[in-house]
Amino acid sequence: MEENHSSSFNGILLEMDELISTDALLGGFVGDGSVNIHGRSVKRAHTGRWKASLFIIGVEIAERLAYAGILANLVIYLTDVKHESTAAAATNVNVWNGVASMLPFVGAFVADSYLGRYWTITLSSVIYLMGLILVTLSASLRSLNGIGIFFFSIYLVALGQGGHKPCLEAFGADQFEENDPVEKKHKSSFFNYWYCGICIGTLIGVTVLSYIQDDVGWGLGFGIPAVTMAIALLIFLCGTRFYRHKLPSGSPLTRIIHVFVAMFHKWNVSTSHQEKRKVAAAPEREVLEFGSRRRQYLLTNQFRFLDKATVEDELDRECKATRNWRLCTVQEVQEVKAVLGLSPIWMSCLIFGVVFAQSSTFFTKQGATMDRKIGHFEIPAASFQCFISLSIILLLPIYDRIFVPIARNLTGNERGITFLQRIGTGMLISILSMIVAALTEIKRIKVAKDNGLVDKPNATIPLSIFQLLPQYMLFGIADVFTMVGMQEYFYDQMPDTMKTLGIAVYLSVLGVGSFLSSIIILVTEKLSCRSNGSCWFVDNLNKAHLDYFYWLLASLSAINFCIYIFLANCYKYKNAQNNISYQEESCRARTILAS
Fold this sequence. Notes:
The protein is mainly α. The protein has 19 helices and 8 strands. It has helices at residues 2-15, 22-26, 49-71, 74-80, 86-102, 104-140, 147-173, 181-215, 218-238, 252-265, 314-318, 330-348, 350-356, 362-368, 386-411, 419-450, 469-493, 499-530, 546-570, and strands at 288-290, 293-295, 370-371, 373-374, 377-378, 461-464, 573-576, 580-583. It has a two-stranded antiparallel sheet with strand order 1-2. A two-stranded parallel sheet has the order 3-6. A hairpin with a 2-residue loop joins strand 1 and strand 2. Helix 3 (49-71) runs antiparallel to helix 9. The protein is globular and about 80 Å long. The protein starts with a helix and ends in a 12-residue tail after the last strand. Mean pLDDT is 78; it is low at 1-27, 273-294 and 576-595.
């Protein structure tokens, strides 16, 4: 009776959080098992939430400035300084960006298995800084300006980013307790403001640094990111006493492999109702220990073949090993099911990653041929990427403060719309951006022909670079929905012990998208050059057919969007409250805007 009264009182306190600080009234410890850097339990009033996450967002602003300072103008540096062809430079940028987006799997593995997020961020920041210093020296000193040294240095940057990127975002989300209703709402806002911080850093990188690289020098243009990264590391360390830490929980890869090994051992075993009574049911192994919370998965009918791994036979009962590779708990199997359940949505997001890769490659080369002057000032082509960031910075607060409350009242969903609705909306807008890009390119080529500039690749086409503004801004609007939606979706839907891996999975969409973009470029280049010699990609963009390429991407995106609608309507959401269960969504009764 006394416990029920206490529970009701705590519920009333949570509802009054907007007026009175819950921390002051409860003064208790964080209930999700978070600890401080010394491994001790932490109080809610003194740690985490915005006081900690603002340090983390500040670090991300500085890191994105550094990364954008390398990426934004890299295709120009490779063509103008290293004298690569346009197609080769675009391919190298896409491959490097793809590797940088895939390496977070390594960082996530190290963080979740061994070091924890805090120490992985610290170590990777040092590697990141070393790479940026080497990039600066390569661009500044003649003795170090070889192409091999330059590529080694930028791939060292990619390695550092691989540990830094997934861990920092997951670490920021860790500062909000999932089981606290108020903090859970703030966590959703965190992802919006996190991406806003990314865009602020990127905005500075693609404007100020692009100008310095074009008009002052590459050495200084690459040196500023190195200084910025050093400042980022200092900011991160300054917030140490405010952070909440989640202890490493062992290798997620090992747990996933364990389930598949056990399933293959039991391939011929039945999982009928009678056999399910024999599943591994030791109480100490039937729950997922996550700090002081015990969070259970309910049985699901997804991927039922994996349930074979839970059936106990005579050999299992005789096995005395610490880890019996022939047997798994229901809990371990349900974790793997949760990960596998994300794969169809992940695959359907890859074409968006291909489209996303164009803003830092062909969009920039397009702009370099156009009239970039405002009075006596010439705008660097790469700096036009700032309009993507500006669109996001302007729209994200509107989305969070205006759209979400209105949508919440209409739908009853605490996030306004579901993760998949948000992602799908951005995909639709990305199709429009490719259509607009194709139409703008047709106009650019027409102006070049009308002015007799087709055979003059270095001549400035009398068409303002601001003609590219709509496609850049549509990119930004698409990012507000799809990019932030993917971050929140993959973090939220991953098992509790694999949150860093969830961020790495999101980043891999961009990485695989960059690789696919490179493959599509190589294939279309070879096929187009065979047909009457009308190559889509040549160094003289006035003779190229980027418009054909954009139409191709728009078509692929439209087909992919239809597939995504089907998959999104069939997706089963994980409901992570006190217990973890699955909420099924009907494939027949819903559409993408109601899923």
